[in-house]
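Model: You mentioned two targets. I'll fold them one after the other.
Researcher: Yes, keep them separate.
Model: Target one:
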Amino acid sequence: MFPAMRRWKQQLTQQACVELLKQEPRGVLSLMGEDGYPYGLPISYWYCEADGKIYFHGAKSGHKIDAIQCCNKASFCVYDQGFRREGEWALNIKSVIVFGRVRVLENEAQMRAAIELLARRYFPEDSAENRRRAIEREWAGLCMLEMDIEHLSGKEAVELARERAGEGGSKQ
């Protein structure tokens, strides 16, 4: 169903993909929008290694929810900051693309658990009481989304792949 990566020498391992999902704070969720237009939105997320799912939060209504109700298939892309070597133009990045289906969580206990973990990810130094108050303040309008991963792949810049393979990635 999902094609093999054309540039297979640049393919990241599944564990490297998971590490990128765990470390990067934002990605782009792409949905099928109105009239068949793609709808990509930058979004914060939490990847749960225990269940292999990705969680997002947002409002209970709007373009995102309308798109999910129309078609729950989605892709989610995450990439690191990358770097440039002195004198080179190439941005050396690693990226992960996830394909799956997104659903709105309906169970209150699941919603609370997901938003608590998302809050801990972005505000690890905050107290449990402050997180609880912030969640309660926004609870009435809060929607939690869960993405079941059907396919995940990652890729690194060709220069990084060459270095990893011992071929040297930098031009002299």
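Model: Target two:
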Amino acid sequence: MRIVFVDQDNTCRSQLAEALVSLDAAEGVEAYSAGFEAGDELDANTRQVMEELGYDMSAHFTKSLDDLPDLEFDYVVSLGVGDPMLKARMSLEWDVPDPRIRDVRSMRDMRDTLRERITR
């Protein structure tokens, strides 16, 4: 199964979701993330809250939709930015506020909310 998470600039929400799937998913699940545009770098709080779970994000970098492999995804999850128009069997829209303008506590809340939704 392939799932891709999309947000505005791939510096925060979509990166968290991709990392959480990679951390928790069963064998055979592939996670991707991208933004409508690629941001400059991952948000520092994003890195911190995943390191708290033992996940190293040093290999993660921001990507745009154009950087995704030419695949059909099983799920495309838009994180508050509208339909990215990718090839997918199912598209979902999750209203997830952008936590970058908040503190690390808000980022932990975002991480936990995403983890719960992904698990369901």
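Researcher: Noted. Anything on target two?
Model: The helical segments are 13-24, 44-51, 104-119.
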